């Protein structure tokens, strides 16, 4: 009973920490709307979408999922309803775009409603299938889920530490370069001031203003 009592708050933390985004928006005819998200490496992403029926013939909505390099991870012409899944290869920004095509004509056409549910990380894994494949009990499934969540949190902290080290190295390198540039600028100013003094002295001597 103690274990079950402990799993309640931990399950709540799991639901809050897992990546899950459900949203809906309107897509006007002949427009393009994209969603971008920054993801780590080796993260599983699943998505489920539904596009309302076009209010005019000839209109269609295409779906494209690409990375920052322009590689297509998933594409669907005349998307209506479906699912997609992929695993990230690198740490970068991934983009999900819905684009409306076709000529709406001279009359007003209602916007299409796009529903999109995106999950990544622990929430993207199907633990029901894992439980069936490995013959796990419900408590064991919860423990597996908590184990995966802990591993995900550790990876996030390791990534944050790596980014902090990279930013610190960049700051130190920038500070060193600024210091060297300041020293160089100081020597340049001193040299210029010295040359100006000697030049003015020769000039005044040539004009016989000073001895």
Distance between the termini: 103 Å
The description of the largest β-sheet is: 4 strands, antiparallel
Kindly state the percentage of residues in helix. 40-55%
CATH class label of one domain: Mainly Beta
Structural class: alpha+beta
- Helix-strand topology string: HEEEEEEEEHH
Shape: elongated
Roughly what is the average pLDDT, rounded to an integer? Answer: 82
In CATH, the architecture of one domain is Sandwich
DSSP helical segment count: 3
Strand order of the largest sheet: 1-8-3-6
How many strands? Answer: 8
Rg (CA only) = 31 Å
Regions with pLDDT < 50 over 5+ consecutive residues? 1-18
CATH fold label of one domain:
Jelly Rolls
Strand-residue proportion: 25-35%
Summary of the model, kept short:
The protein has helices spanning about 1-15, 125-135, 140-205, and strands at about 20-25, 30-40, 45-50, 60-65, 70-75, 80-85, 90-100, 110-120. By secondary structure, the protein is of the alpha+beta class. It has a 4-stranded antiparallel β-sheet.
Break the fold down into its secondary structure elements and pairings.
Layout (H helix, E strand, L loop, with lengths): L1 H16 L1 E9 L4 E8 L4 E8 L8 E8 L4 E5 L4 E7 L4 E10 L10 E9 L6 H8 L3 H69 L5
Helix pairs in contact: 1-3, 2-3
Describe this protein with a few key phrases.
211 residues, Jelly Rolls, 3 helices
What does the model show?
This protein has 3 helices and 8 strands; from the N terminus they run αββββββββαα. The protein is of the alpha+beta class and 211 residues long. The chain has a domain of 106 residues: Jelly Rolls (Sandwich).
């Amino acid at each position: 009973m103690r274990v079950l009592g402990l799993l309640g708050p931990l399950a709540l933390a799991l639901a809050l920490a897992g990546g899950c985004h459900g949203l809906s928006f309107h897509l006007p005819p002949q427009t393009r709307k994209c969603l971008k998200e920054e993801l780590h490496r080796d993260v599983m992403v699943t998505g489920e979408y539904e596009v309302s029926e076009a209010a005019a013939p000839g209109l269609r909505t295409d779906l494209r999922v690409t990375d920052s390099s322009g590689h297509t991870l998933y594409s669907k012409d005349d998307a209506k309803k479906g699912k997609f899944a992929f695993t990230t290869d690198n740490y970068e920004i991934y983009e999900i775009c819905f684009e409306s095509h076709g000529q709406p004509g001279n009359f007003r056409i209602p916007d299409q409603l796009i529903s999109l549910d995106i999950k990544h990380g622990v929430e993207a894994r199907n633990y029901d299938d894992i439980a069936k494949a490995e013959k796990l009990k419900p408590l064991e499934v919860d423990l597996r889920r908590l184990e995966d969540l802990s591993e995900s949190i550790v990876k996030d902290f390791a990534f944050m530490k790596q980014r902090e080290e990279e930013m610190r190295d960049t700051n130190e390198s920038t500070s060193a370069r600024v210091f060297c540039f300041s020293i160089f600028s100081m020597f340049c100013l001193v040299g210029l001031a010295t040359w100006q003094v000697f030049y003015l002295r020769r000039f005044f001597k040539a004009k016989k203003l000073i001895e």
